[in-house]
Structures are given as structure tokens and as C-alpha cells.
Batch of 3 targets.
Target 1
Amino acid sequence: MKILFLGDVMGRSGRRAITERLGVLKSRLKADFAIVNGENASGGTGLTAGHAKVLLDAGADCVTLGDHAFDQKDMLAFIDTEPRVLRPLNFAREAPGRGHRVYQDARGRKVLVLQALGQVFMKRPFDDPFSAVDAVLRAHPPGGMVQAAVLDIHAEATSEKMAMGHYCDGRASLVVGTHTHVPTADAQLLPRGTAYQSDAGMCGDYDSVIGMDKAEPLRRFLTGMGRDRFTPAEGEATLSGVLVTTDDRTGLATRIEMVRDGGRLAQTHPEG
């Protein structure tokens, strides 16, 4: 099976790129299943119900969220009506929605998708992500209950993401980080067969400061004072993520490739 994972969609530029290019990208890469992190798709903070529908209609089989899961208030009700949208596993127990679910690709193969929030350097404490992930993976062994298992670890610290990758090695097809909006160059197959990358990057305009128009972040760094709100940059977006090939029999990965489509990053990664 080929699974495409794309990092945080950033504002209008990211949504536009998903709408215009996701279907073509899936076809070109022969992807059987596509997961998109929609954490910042609505104005850079959270995801509205309407924008979730845009991502799903464009070809996302599953949309994951993150620490801004409910910044857009209509998501509180929408997530209980749309099983293809996932919030983090270790969010508050009373939060609506679910943090994991089993889906099927067009051939009926089962794909477990789950998401967890990291704890290190995050603005508020969340429940232990390791025990939350462990419980789900124990109940859904790849190659048994499911043909593939993908974990989106939404976290700030690369060390925490790496630890999660090794913790899940041999029990998941892919562990991939989101949240920092900067793609890392460490795509690899771990010793027991789990594909890993510390951060998938973002689907947004890279002529920016992590997806935001440069003027206000630069002002704050230079003066220590803010004047305006952060607003997403609106130039051409790069679709950034990974493509993982898995063995249906074992559920483990046999190959991981970095994906760069359109925008500034594709100019230096033409293979994407």
C-alpha cells in the first residue's frame, strides 16, 4: 500500500494548493490513501467545518488536527458528525470527536490513523502521549487487525518525536511529526520497519516565517513589540510531506520518500 501524508495546511494558500493539486499528486504517486494535517488551515489557527469539507472533497481520506483543534468553535459540533476528522488522542477526555479510527482504502485494506500531542515545550500540559498511543497500537497490530498504522505526532521537540518513533518501531507503518511547519531531512526506516520523519513540514507558502507573512514576525523579533496580528502568507504553497510504501502482510514500511510539490521547496527538490 502507498500512503501519502501531508503536513500542516497553512491558511488560504495551503487550502488552495490542496484543492488544486492533491488529486493530481495522489494519481501521480499512485497513493492508495491520503492523510492531511488541517491544524492551521483556517486563518492559521484551527479548522472550520467548511474548510474541513474543502480538504476532504479535494481527496484527503483523513484530516488530523492538533493543539489548535477547537480554536474554530464550529469544529466542536462538526467533529462528531465527520468521522474522517481526528483530534489528538490525549486531549481532554470530555473533548468531542476521536483520536484514532480505522479507515479503508479503495481496495478494502484497513488503515489505522491516530494522532497524539507532545508535552515538551507545549503551551499547556496534555495527558501522556506514549501510554495513549500504546493502548491503541496494542489493540490494532499492523498485519493483523489492520494492514497499516499511521501516527501523526504533533509536537514541538524533535527529541520527543524521535522517542515516539522508536517507541512505535515495529508496531506502526509510519510515525511522522507535525506542528513546527519545517520539514526535516531525516526520513528513514527504523530498525524494526517503521518509517519515520521528525516533521513533514507544512502545506503553505515557504516565503514566510513558518507560514506567516514575514513583516509582523520580523518586527517582533527586531523590536520585541507587536503591532499587528499574524496573518498567513499567501504566495504559492508547497505541498510538503512523505510517501510511504508498506507491506500488506506485515503492515511495516518498505520505503519512505519526501514529497515536495509546487512552490519554493519544489524548486530545490524537483523529484517531488
Target 2
Amino acid sequence: MGRFLGVVADDFTGALMVAGYIEAAGIYCPVVFDAAAIVADAPVVVAGTRTRTIPVSEALGELARMTDAFVQAGYARLAYKACASFDSTAEGNIGPAADFLADRQGLRPVLMCAGFPRYGTTVHQGYLFYRGRLVSDSIKRFDPLTPMPDPDLVRFLSRQTPHPVALVNHATLLKGAGAAGAAVEALAAEGAGHVLLDLSDDNDTEIAAEIACSQPSVVVASDPLIIAYACRLARSEPANPKPAPRHAEGPAAVIAGTVGPVILRQLDVFGEAHPVLTLDLLDPRGDAGTIAAALEWALPFIGAQPFAISTATDGEGVERVQRLLGPLGAARRAEYLLGSIARGLHERGVNRLVVAGGETSGAVVSALGIGAVRAFPEGPLGTGFCVAEGPRPISLYLKPGKLGGDDVLLRALDLMQAPT
């Protein structure tokens, strides 16, 4: 079996998304959360990490561990998957990750590409749009950790790296891979260390993937280019030789750690049918007391009906907590509480979990000690479903916080029923 591409994703939900699309193309693509779980038995492997919001030095350490494991397993090409809107800060972590991989592989310029047209995120003339608006004027400006105040990605990414960032725009990409590839080479000759490619539509994705495959490349991109790149590289691989994954059986619960109006509406709809517990991050009982109380609250529902435990709150609640804990402190406390509660629920029999929020997903998977999962191909709710196989399988639906309809939590639980 060929070993074509090792992908390091900056969060767990994104890792599952790209793996789900790659699996749907008939390519075996496991998702790993531990470098020790990377083995040379798949043409493409995606490593889910938590490098999006942790300090740069920690992110680079995690990237180095995964990269070393990929190289040792024989994966010559490496890529870094960021989210569609390239969520980050002026300090990183996308630019530092790109520089690390470029230095590790000895390849420049790095090909960079943000956006996901299917979900309303595009890049045109280097400007990032989210649902038809400049990202700085969209709901993304309220993100508590990565508010994205500058829609000019060339300018924004230039703050994260000492190497010049250049642009190949949509008009050039329309001329085809030959012209666009020549433009990349010309910009590299002028000293560009990174070249950002517009992503105005799906055709831009295919042209960018053709350029990336035409020569050894370091790719730092959002989902569409990573998926197209992986599928092109693995075209010679026979159809997926692995049997399709199956969901686990047993009690189910929802864990929601994201914030904002989207998850609040989803929890309201879920709460019309099932119980919901909302945690206070400033609970005077402290972490241990809050966790114990949540598990005690949940115990009567386990096996009787689904339920949800959440730290989601409105803008006023977020401001109140962040004023005392800081944005990062508030996020880390929520992740610790929900991860610990998820572990406690599993110990009490819960085998199916719907988890809302990329960082929360990372916390839950880490707390459960899951090293690798098999992603399900895209279904009625898209991607994000997976199962950790073993003597006692665990089914998960890891959902990005701002995606999904109002009834997504209920629908996810229905779709996670094990076949009879």
C-alpha cells in the first residue's frame, strides 16, 4: 500500500471532516490523535491536534512529534490543515507551522489556501469572506480566541512569519494550472516564502491541487485543498480495502463547549425533548465539585434518555467569565470540566457522545484516551462521525461549533444508532 500524505490538522473536528471526505472517495484514511498511533498501513493519515489556539511553542512541539512520526512511517509528503477561515492571531499559529514544515522538508514556497466555498467561506483577491461578508464584519469577529479583525490574508499572515507572503489571485487561477504554477515560480524567484492562492470557487481548488501535486510541496491549507490534494496523490490506490465502520451501542449524551448564538439555538431545540445542564465556569464549588455535581445530575438519565451538559452562554455571560478568567483561561476551564465529565460519563456507561466545538472535541477525545478513530464518510449531516474501535467501541460526532441546523444535536443522535 502506498504512503502518499501525512496531514496534521489544527483541531479534531477538522481532522474528521477531511478524513470523512477522503474516505468517501474510497481511500482508507484513519484519524490519529497520538503520534504513536501513526502506522504505515494507509495511503493518507490525518493527525488531529490542538495546535490552533495553544501557545506557538507548544503547537510547534506537537507538530514536530507528529511530523517525525509521519516521516518515520514513510510518508514523504506533509501538509498542515487549518480551518476554513484560517482562525489565528497575529502571533500564529499558521505562519509558524508553515515555516516549521518548510524548514523540515527543505521546500519553499509554501502553498497556502484558505476558504471552503461549500460552506460560504471564500478568498478573493486575498480577502477572506465568511458567508458573503468580509470576515471582519461577520459573526467570526465575536470569536473569543481568534476574532480575525483583518480580512486581508496576505497582510494578516505576514504578521506571523518573517518570510514574504505573496498572492496568486482568482484571475490567474482561471488561466489554468500551467499559468498559475508559473506565477508561483515567479513569486518564489522574487523571494516569496509563502504563496497564498485565492479560493473563490471549487475550480480554484482543483487548480491548486494540480499545482501542489506537480512537484514536491509543503501545503498549508483549509479542507478543500487538503482533500483534493490527498485524493489526487492516492488515485493509484485500489478502492478502500477496509470494511466500513459501525457505530457503538449504548447510552448517549451531548457535550457542548462552544459559545455563540448557533449552539444556544441548537441547545434550545434539544432541550425541548431532553434535559440540559448548563455549567457555570465561575461555580464556587471549584472544578472537582462542579464535575461531581454534573455527574450526579446525569446519573438518572444514563440509559433512560439522552441529555446534554454545556458551558455555552450568551455574549454577556462570555464577557462576565472572561473578565475574571481571561479568554484563554475561560476556554481551558471549560475544556477541562467537559473533558472530565465526558470521561466520567463513559465510566458510567455512555458509549455515544455528540460533542460541539473544536477545542471541546479535543478535550473530550484526550480525556477519553482515544488514540485513533475511523471516520464515517459524509452523510446527511456532513462529516464528523467516527468510532474508536476496540473491545468497547465509542461513537462520536465531533461538530464545529458554528455549523449545523437548529436540530443538529437531535439528528446526530438518531444517526449514531448502531445498525441492527
Target 3
Amino acid sequence: MTTAPAPIVFITGASSGIGQALAARFHAAGWRLALVARRGAEVEQWARAQGYAADRFRVFPADVRDLASIRAAGEACIADFGLPDAVIANAGISVGMDTADPTDLEVMRATFETNNLGMAATFQPFVAPMCRRRSGRLVGIASVAGIRGLPGHGAYCASKAGVISYCESLRGECRPFGVKVVTITPGYIDTPLTQKNRYGMPFLMPADAFADRAFRAIVAGDSYRVIPWQMGVVAKLLRLLPNALYDRLLAGRPRKRRQHE
């Protein structure tokens, strides 16, 4: 009797933080890993340091802002490793911005190119093959920051709101073909990205705990999941606040660090 090959997960932003934690969780569950990052050599070194067998992972160096690069990584994965069962568009950046400063418009451009266009380019090589196969998971990593805008976070909040709406649109397109689109919306997760924040982070969660909950939501094919759930409650309450009260609540809140800070 032939044993079915282990499922494959394709993860961008796999060099650190959430991406690396997700890679470890999927590997522990017996999945094969297709790992994507700009720093491919570092990811390769990390995987070998974990003791991962050479046939259980592949590294595809790519930059999601370079559309040809990330498309080529997806096509190489399909050709050399196989069509993934799950694709996780995790690569993202988070930088503060001040619209009064013209140089920060480039921050917004880079944020949208990475967090939005990069996500669509990550999914693009896999949509048609998954629909033909009539199975698969396309997973977008959003943020509770996409639910309501925060002062000094204009680029990041807007980009993550875009992720939520984009994944919702894609979900409707893929549903008739048996392909599930999963939106994972993290709260504050303890990663190198959040460690730079200079404000309180309620319900801060270790990356491995987040990865475990995200893994279960992805395998289950949940359409939308906020992790941890407490941040989902907070976000919904903030959404219900009248604008005047919300603005007063955030008055004087420290802003996200800008690129030069």
C-alpha cells in the first residue's frame, strides 16, 4: 500500500517571528515546508539547526515586493516540491508614518507593496492549480490593527484593513472550487517586530502559542480567526465606540516608531 506524501505548506516571511514559529508548528505536525524569505541562507541554516531532514523542507529565496521574484518562487515550489496544501502569506512590515513628512509617503508605498501587493503575488501562482485540484488553503496574515485606525500607524493599519477585505473577496471567488481562504488576525505577538513598540501591548502572546492556535484554525479552514480571542473582543468593542470617544481614548498614545527613529 502506497503511503500518501506529507502535505506541503508554503510560508513567506519565514526567517523570523510568526513565520518561523508557524514553520516549526507545521513541521511538528508532519508537514513538509516550503520556506520563503529574502535571507534564504539564514532560513536554510535555521532549518538545519532544528534537525529538519533535507527532504522535509525547501528554501526559496524571494522578496515579495519583487513580483517576478515571488511568482518565480511559487512556480519553483510547484515544479520542484509539489503543489502546496496551504499557502501562508505572512511576510509583512510595520513602520510608523507621519503624513506631514513627504519622505514617509515612501514608507506607505513600501508597506502596501509588501503587505498587500506582496500577498496577492504570493497567492497568484497557486490559485488556478488549487482550484483545478479543488482543495487547498490560502492564508492571509492580517492584524487587529486593521480593524480600527491608530494614530501614527496609518500605513500599517490601512494595509492590514486591506488584507482583511482582500481575503474576504478572494474567499468568495475560491469557495465554488473547494479552496478555502483563511484570514488570521493576530493581536500582539512577541516577535522582533513588536519588541520595538513603545506602548503597552495587552494580551501579548508568545509566538509559539500563536502558531499553535493559527495552525488549528488553518487546518480547520476557518474563514476568520482573531488570536488571541481576547483581542478580538477588544477590537469589536473599539469598533463600536463613537468616533469622539475613540479619539479621546487614544489622545496622547505613543506612536509607532518611524523609520529613522
